[in-house]
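Annotated sample (chain length 69).
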Amino acid sequence: MSTTAAPTTPSLSRPRSGRMIAGVCAGLARRFGLSPTLVRWIAVASVLLPGPQVLVYVILWIIMPNDRD
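Output written by the structure step:
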């Protein structure tokens, strides 16, 4: 019988390196396998739309832990 390890998904945390402001976009990009630059551009573009984007960013900044490095 062979056992295979389940693929691990990166945790949702803010990296200590590669941050621009708080590391929220970099953490989201790493978690979902996207480019941090792309996520940052999407975040900046979303601010032009009506909605609570800045509030969501601040909330994520508060609740997302730093990496344990």
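Annotation: The chain has one domain: 12-69.
Annotation: The mean pLDDT is 89.
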